[in-house]
Structures are given as structure tokens and as C-alpha cells.
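User: Please check C-alpha cell order:
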Amino acid sequence: MAVEIVEVKRLVAPDVMPCPDPIIEREVISTILDFCKKSNVLQREFEVELDVDDIDDEMQNCIDINIEEFAGDLRLVSLLELMVDANAYIPYKRDIRTTITNYDYVKDEEYKYYWLPDNRNIRLFDMKVTDSLVWMKASFKPLRTLDEIDDFLFEDWSEGLVAGAKWKILSMPNKEWTDFKTASYYRSEYRRYLSQAKQAVVRGASGYSDRVNWKSFGEID
């Protein structure tokens, strides 16, 4: 289920008149992207069956996992949880090819390093030829071209999204709708809802997680 962006705009517009509709839409979208990026509230789970022939032993035994087909019109923000053959690791974002010179540091029993070389792939380091299955939970944000959002974002966090958009619009200088005092109030409200969303993620109660089984040649269960 999804909710059109226009529904969020309708909640914003009455308090920012006479702000033009294109500006309202721009700031609503900007707020949604910021909220998802900072809160990690939009999540997906997926499993990947590995092909050991894809492991690059000349680049710290890394493997690139393509996520484009299942991620759709979302962009990956962060890898939150990671298991390799039922062994849990703490995912740590770092491009070890350029930032670590002592590669013994990479072989950590607790951490697994990863990098995002582009919008389509997750690169995992220090993989073994015996590794066969990877399970991941990752957070995402929509594209800037979005015209709708997941219904859970609207149902659970619309107050925060609306507050954030009003804050951005009312704090624009030298406009007919400029109101710094009210903008300050909505800034506080937005930050309060953002804090609540972060806490919900920590508690494992973000409200949405879509599980996808992914096979090595791109077949989705």
C-alpha cells in the first residue's frame, strides 16, 4: 500500500499560505528523504545465495551484491544487520581498500566491513570460499522523484513529516509566508518525531520491514 505525496501536501498547505504548490512539494519530498536517511525507519530484509567464483581475492576477498532489482525505486542508506551462514556480524561502513593499510585488522570476528560503491551494490569484505548465504537488514530512502510513500510512513510519521516541511518553508527568508517564530516551533516538533523514529528502530519497532529472498543469478522468491 502507498499514499500519494499530495496527501502530505494537503496537511502542510493551510499553514504556509501563500506558498506556491511546487515549493511545498519540493520541501515535503526533501523532508521525507531527510527523515528516512536519519532515522533508518524504512527497512528491507533480504537473503543472498553467494557464488564463490564472484569473490575477488585480489581486493581483500570482497564480493559485490547487486540489490537494484529488489530495491526498486529506493536508495540504500545503511546496512543495519548482517549474518553470513548464521554467523552474526556488526556491519561497519568503510572502504578498506583506501583507508586501511593493515589488512589483518579486517579479519575481525565481530565486525564485517562493507562499502557502497554505487547505488546498485553492497560490497562485503573478507568473505570466504566456504560462505554460501548472506542475510541482511538495510535501511533505505526514496528517490527525489517519488510521488508516493509507503503507507506506514504516512500513518506512523505524518505528523513529523508535516512539521519538517512547515519548518523548512516558514524559515525561508523574505517571503510572504516567512514566520521564524512558528518555524522554530515546527523545527522542535520535527526533531522530536525524528528522535522517536530513531528510538523505534533501536527497539525493532520501525513499523515496516519487507523480506526478499535473493538468489545469486537475480531470481527473486
Notes: The beta strands are 2-4, 43-49, 63-66, 74-84, 87-93, 111-115, 121-124, 133-142, 148-150, 209-214.
